[in-house]
Amino acid sequence: EVQLVESGGGLVQAGGSLRLSCAASGFTFDDYAIGWFRQAPGKDREGVSCISSSDENTYYADSVKGRFTISRDNAKNTVYLQMNSLKPEDTGVYYCAIRSPLRGHTLCPGGSYYYTGEAPWDDWGQGTQVTVSS
């Protein structure tokens, strides 16, 4: 059974930092790209970042470029999202997700569509809350 467990969220002041973790089990972690999404109250889910199975490609939403860094430790089956210079608009529930092999699971998909709330990602974690106060 696929399991994705996010952790590391919390309350932080604007300008602060947090590091989120996504611990994975139940599948061959090394073979999968991992995406991070977030959803703010009353807003659609949006893709934040993605890292391919072997680090050869990454994706960042324009809103987080230069502030967030995604990385992975295949020995620990964990993906990290380092978030610096946090802003109140970064507030939301952060989720990690994977795509099934039928959709192409090793690389981060190209095109902004794949990082919208409508895009098909197949397995999700339960989310971790990030709240940035002004």
Notes on the structure:
With 134 residues, the protein is an all-beta fold. It is 0% helix and 44% strand. Strand 7 (68-73) and strand 8 form a beta hairpin. The mean pLDDT is 95.
Describe how the helices and strands are arranged.
Layout: E1 3-7, E2 10-13, E3 18-25, E4 34-39, E5 46-51, E6 58-60, E7 68-73, E8 78-83, E9 92-98, E10 123-124, E11 128-133
Parallel strand pairs: 2-11
Antiparallel strand pairs: 1-3, 3-8, 4-5, 4-9, 5-6, 7-8, 9-10, 9-11
Profile the largest sheet.
7 strands, mixed
Strands, total number: 11
Distance between the termini: 40 Å
Question: Uncertain spans, ≥5 residues at pLDDT below 50?
Answer: none
Based on helices, strands and strand pairing, what is the structural class? mainly beta
**Discrete helix count:** 0
Percent helix range: under 10%
**Global mean pLDDT:** 95
The fraction of residues assigned to DSSP E strands is 35-45%
Outline, from the CA principal axes? globular
Name the helix and strand elements from N-terminus to C-terminus, one letter apiece.
EEEEEEEEEEE
CA-atom Rg in angstroms: 14 Å
Summarize the structure.
The protein is mainly β and about 130 residues long. It is about 0% helix and about 45% strand.
Q: What are the salient characteristics of this protein?
A:
globular, 134 residues, mainly beta, four-stranded antiparallel sheet, single chain, seven-stranded mixed sheet
